[in-house]
Amino acid sequence: MLDERKGFVPLPRERILFTSPPRTALALQTPNSYPGKSPLSINSPGGVAYLTNQRLVYLPTASTPQLQSFSAPILNLQDTHVSAPFFGPNIWTGILQPVTGGGIPPHHAFVEIKMTFKDGGAFDFHSSFERIKETLSQALESARESGRIPSQGQGVDLSGVHLDQLPAYEDIGSTAIAQPTTVIQQPVPITPPHTQQSRPTNNGQFQPLENSRHEPATAQSFQPPDEPPPGYEEAQQISVVDHLEESIRHSR
Questions:
Q1: For residue 131, how many other CB atoms are within 10 A of its CB?
Q2: What tens digit of pLDDT does each residue of 149-177 get?
Q3: CB-based contacts of 226: which residues, under 8 Å, 6+ apart?
Q4: Which residues are paired to 115 by β-bridges?
């Protein structure tokens, strides 16, 4: 698996898709929920983690008799997530189902894996891992539905699965949406219809009369009444009598 120049020997049709910074720590231990009689604890203070189209590979900076290298199939890692403590670097955590003959004692059905990214890159690593895992899961499900593999998924070759970059997500809120345009039209003056009267002609047709609209009354068309208003003469007589009496009183 290891190569002095290339770091590790890739599998057939294996491609490296992500490489972590060199100071990435690794810890393999028994989960707290499954402590067992002989807990597992393997640690490396620094190394490089690789994500390929088939597996996760970790090479420690300084190998020890306990850990020369570590690798796990992508689909054998579950419940992966990134935790960001208030102080300290980000930590990527997951649950590993060990493969038979992989070096982990067989009585450990599950192992907790933790990688501490001291130089950053935890979220980039996680997003790449999830993208690869989703694509491999879809390929495995498709093969299972078509009957090419048994329901347990044993013996399936996922090395040829196409893992090109998925299309970038585009937020619908960032897409320019045509705003409705309010058009205010200028009022169009409306001329009232010309009311016309008509009169019959000799051939039985009607001919409109000119100047048949009702014109408002003006001072030129006003005609005074021919008779005085009621009580006008009596009022004049009373006024004359009062004037005579007033003159007589002053003459005395």
A1: 16
A2: 655 545 555 555 555 544 433 443 444 44
A3: none
A4: 26, 92
Q: Classify 160 as helix, strand or coil.
A: coil
Phi and psi angles of residue 129, each rounded to the nearest 5 degrees, phi first: -60, -45
Q: Which residues lie below 8 Å from residue 90, measured CB to CB, with a gap of 6+?
A: 82, 83, 84, 116, 117, 120, 122, 123
Number of Cβ within a 10 Å radius of residue 140: 16
- For 175, what's the count of Cα atoms within 13 Å in the CB-facing half-sphere? 6
If DSSP codes are grouped into helix, strand and coil, which group holds residue 93?
Answer: strand
Q: Which amino acid is at 46?
A: G
Which residue's structure tokens are 């057939």? 12
Amino acid identity for residue 94 in this structure: G
Mind listing the pLDDT tens digit for each residue in 123-138?
A: 999 999 999 999 999 9
**Angle of CA points 164, 156, 167, to nearest 5°:** 15
Sorted by sequence, the CB contacts under 8 Å of residue 122 that are 6+ apart come out as 82, 84, 89, 90, 91, 92, 115
The whole-angstrom separation of Cα 72 and Cα 76 is 7
Structure token pair of residue 196: 């016309």
Check if the beta carbon of residue 176 is closer than 8 Å to that of residue 188: no
Per the CB < 8 A criterion, the answer to whether 131 and 59 are in contact is no
DSSP state, residue 59:
E
Alpha-carbon torsion 81, 161, 143, 167, what sign? positive
